[in-house]
Design a protein that fits this description.
Blueprint lengths: L7 H9 L6 E9 L4 H18 L3 E7 L12 E7 L2 H9 L1 H13 E9 L8
């Protein structure tokens, strides 16, 4: 599996998950050295509007700084909330998203995308 390839097993689980609650997508991004940030800005300009149009929101977007634990270094972190998994899937299947996604591919050396659900830390 490549550094930007879909994890087929988890994608199928995500797609088949009947949960209709909001989902927060954790994005860890490593930009290409030559023009990566600019290409990602082109992607984000289109996709941010798509997210808000479907009722989602950017919870947090930030640049990384000091790495206090671990070894993997990332340039940026995003937390994006979608109304549901179905809404996320409908967005990424749209022709508008597919056209914008080209810029994401141009921008990133590697990335991680996790689907997350809220939890009560007292019940771990």
């Amino acid at each position: 599996m490549g550094k930007l390839d879909i994890n087929d097993k988890d994608y199928k689980e995500f797609k088949d998950n009947p949960n209709e609650e909001p989902v927060v997508m954790l994005n860890l991004l490593k930009f290409k050295d030559d023009g990566g940030e600019e290409a990602y800005a082109r992607y984000a300009a289109v996709v941010t509007k798509m997210i808000t149009d479907l009722g989602g929101r950017i919870i947090f977007a930030g640049q990384t700084h000091e790495l206090l634990t671990g070894e993997d270094r990332w340039d940026s972190v995003l937390l994006v909330e979608y109304p549901s998994r179905k809404d996320f899937l409908n967005m990424i299947r749209s022709e508008e998203y597919k056209r914008a996604h080209v810029h994401r591919q141009e921008a990133l050396e590697r990335a991680v995308l996790y689907a997350t659900q809220g939890m009560d830390l007292r019940k771990i």
